[in-house]
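Researcher: I'm preparing a figure for a lab meeting and need a structural model of a single chain. I don't have an experimental structure, so a prediction will have to do for now. The sequence is pasted below. Please return the structure as tokens so I can convert it later.
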Amino acid sequence: MFTNNKKGVIITLILKNWSVEEMQKTYLCIDLKTFYASVECVERGLNPFSTNLVVADPTRGKGTICLAISPKMKMLGVKNRCRIFEIPPTIKYIIAMPRMKKYIEYSANIYEIYLKFFSKDDIHVYSIDEAFMDATKYLNMYKLTPVELAQKIIKDIYNTYGITATAGIGTNMYLAKIALDITAKHNPSNIGYLDEEKYKKELWEHKPLTDFWQIGKGIERRLNKMGIFNMYDIAHTETKKLYKEFGVNAEYLIDHSWGRESCTIADIKAYKPQTNSISNSQVLFEDYSFIKARLVLKEMIELGSLRLVENNLITDTVQLYIGYSKDIIKATGGMKKLSNSTNVYSELLKEFLNIYDKTTNREFAIRRIGINFANVMKADNVQLSLFTDQEKLDRERKLELTMCSIKNKMGKNSVVRGMDLQEGATTILRNKLIGGHNGG
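Model: Understood. Here is the structure written out token by token.
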């Protein structure tokens, strides 16, 4: 028996004599349609299906990417994720500055609606506007078909928050996602359904391949070179050829071509990675010189170090990625295995700058920086080295813990280093952002 008591809603489920494993699985994948733009329309009392609105930061220039556009603009032929200058000048529209805090608030509230229908153990949040639910053991309890259950949830979301949702239903997570991405958009109810046979009948010949989950343009080009242009072709290509081209990734291509997916929400919840890492990356607001980008790198290392210290973690491997403006030259960077595991800023700074100074091309403008602390582990599990000044490291670590405490209480910008005030520094500005966008 499962009981979920949430805001007075009590769900009690008593399974019959068969096990859940013996039932045919039923998954829902629910997407909040043009989520950011819909939130902005709702907040203004406007209908997203009759309002021209884009979510973008106009202060970044005409080349900035629109995070979302309203359904009305899609009807006019404007493509999602377009740049502002690509919108035809004949279309009049509202520009809404991104407000990530507001979108997170809406997403969390809508998650509360999901909890009215499912246990949190049967929900997997895929992104801020998309979630999977394992509905297998709930259909008999609610005495609803999968479509009726999806309609009930979609109606609740719209009536409560004014946000339109779409749903995919499938006998596994992959089919639910494909039903959402491809089938639902052609259905007046905004709901699509697929099982393996329906998938093969309706989508084996579907093009382009990039419409399918986890197939990007790069993979599509490689498949096309092999004479493969749809899922039927993948399913009927000799597996040895696919493994030769894609390695272990061929397995999911083959399974997905037949509409198969063995991964469940329970598997995702139970997954524990063998190794852990902490990463941070940013796209710079403009082209940066070697010197200015070096300053930003130092800021990023400090933030990463503070995160390690605050969580009592250390790393023994650092990785650096440097991407150049307009991809004029190939990205540079490298990886370094440290002699001692650490979380101390001064030590990590030395290693990263060593890689940066040796590998970065000083003649070309830099636009992207990424850092990674690999093989992260608890600091308590590592033996101290005889060849380090432990007292000095402990003093620095204590100072960083104090900084973390102040930032947590007073805000991220309550304590900053002198370098954060220099021209080209980004930390103070980025501390006001969420996910790289205006917090609102």
